[in-house]
UniProtKB/TrEMBL annotation:
It comes from the Bacteria. It is found in: Cell membrane. GO terms for cellular component: plasma membrane. Keywords: Cell membrane, Membrane, Transmembrane, Transmembrane helix, Transport. This is AI-2E family transporter. The chain crosses the membrane at residues 15-36, 48-76, 140-161, 194-219, 225-255, 262-284, 296-321.
Length: 342
């Protein structure tokens, strides 16, 4: 069957192309659906017409986005422009810091020559900057292409918020009667898992970003807002995101001074411990039942297949498949028990 599938690729390619086009807007729509659904449900439970509640939430969201754009965007844009203009000086400052560290007699014993460490680390930084620039340009290109279909996301979200609760009722008639109760339970569990994960991730990451920004302001770290925004994007990725988000912060702080880098590292460690031990357990509870090693492997696979979209989507997809397989296995065991009883 696999071999024959390769022979009809000309029939499958249009389908795969359609899936590729729809995947990103559907994923974004699903994210906003779970983020906005509790608010819409709140108004709907208080006898507000659901379509009116959705339009009201849209209006409030648009007002908040506009307010954030007016207040935050000028500062963020200024920091981005300043960073890009000062990038050569920052790289040179990084080299100078390495040279000063190498002048320390104790640390110099671990290097073959004074220029060796400086050249290596500077080369790593140059490669990292080039890789980041290429990645940003590719992301901007993908976003530019997506702008053409981005107007469809609010429409998709609107109908998801309005008709989403009816989806199980429309699917159940296609399921044999004896399996409908199990299927309904499985769909409900999938829905709760996705809702808990997406809302939890946004809440935890937002609190973490706010604490990081306040900490960076207290120690007068340059580009505080930009680094906090970068950390927010990276921290949406579970487990490994916190380490990826810390790297730009530490590099900028190290260019200022090694002492500043130690302060930043201390702030990140303290906030990550607060998030991991106090905030995340209360937000997630036991809903995120995924081993860290499993999550890392999934993120590597998702990133290799679909890039940043795969990294963000692979954990929810895994959670859905895990629930499906568990329910399927339970049905298999129940059937075996029935056969033994008979």
């Amino acid at each position: 069957m696999i071999y024959l599938t390769t022979k009809i690729s000309f029939l499958l390619n249009p389908i795969l192309r359609m899936i590729h086009i729809l995947l990103l807007p559907v994923l974004i729509s699903g994210f906003f659906y779970y983020a906005l659904r509790p608010i819409v449900d709140y108004f709907s439970d208080r006898k507000v017409i659901r379509s009116v509640a959705i339009l009201f939430v849209y209006f409030v969201a648009a007002a908040l986005i506009s307010l954030l754009g007016i207040v935050i965007w000028p500062l963020l844009q200024d920091q981005v422009t300043t960073l890009m203009n000062n990038l050569p000086q920052l790289i040179e400052g990084f080299r100078n810091q390495i040279d000063q560290i190498q002048q320390n007699r104790f640390l110099s014993m671990f290097g073959s020559s004074q220029s060796d460490w400086s050249n290596r680390l500077s080369g790593y930084l140059d490669n990292g900057v080039k890789t980041a620039a290429d990645y940003i340009s590719q992301s901007l290109l993908a976003f530019t292409n997506f702008v053409v279909i981005a107007a469809t996301v609010p429409i998709i979200v609107y109908y998801m918020l309005k008709e989403g609760a009816k989806l199980p009722l429309k699917l159940l008639p296609f399921i044999p009667k004896k399996y409908r109760a199990d299927c309904k339970s499985m769909l409900s569990e999938m829905d709760n898992a996705l809702s808990g994960y997406i809302l939890g991730r946004v809440i935890v990451t937002s609190i973490l970003t706010a604490m990081l920004y306040i900490g960076f302001l207290l120690i007068h770290l340059p580009y505080s807002l930009l680094l906090a925004v970068i950390s927010f994007v990276f921290n949406l990725i579970p487990y490994i995101g916190q380490f990826l988000g810390a790297i730009p912060c530490l590099i900028v702080a190290f260019i200022v001074s090694p002492a500043k880098a130690l302060w930043v590292a201390g702030i990140i460690v303290v906030i990550q411990n607060v998030e991991g031990n106090l905030i995340a357990p209360h937000v997630y509870g036991k809903r995120l039942d995924i081993h860290p090693l499993t999550a890392v492997l999934l993120l590597l696979i998702g990133g290799d297949i679909l890039g940043i979209v795969g990294i963000l989507a692979v954990i929810p997809i895994y959670m859905i498949l895990k629930i499906f397989v568990r329910h399927l296995y339970q049905l298999f065991l129940e059937k075996k028990v029935e056969e033994l009883v008979e």
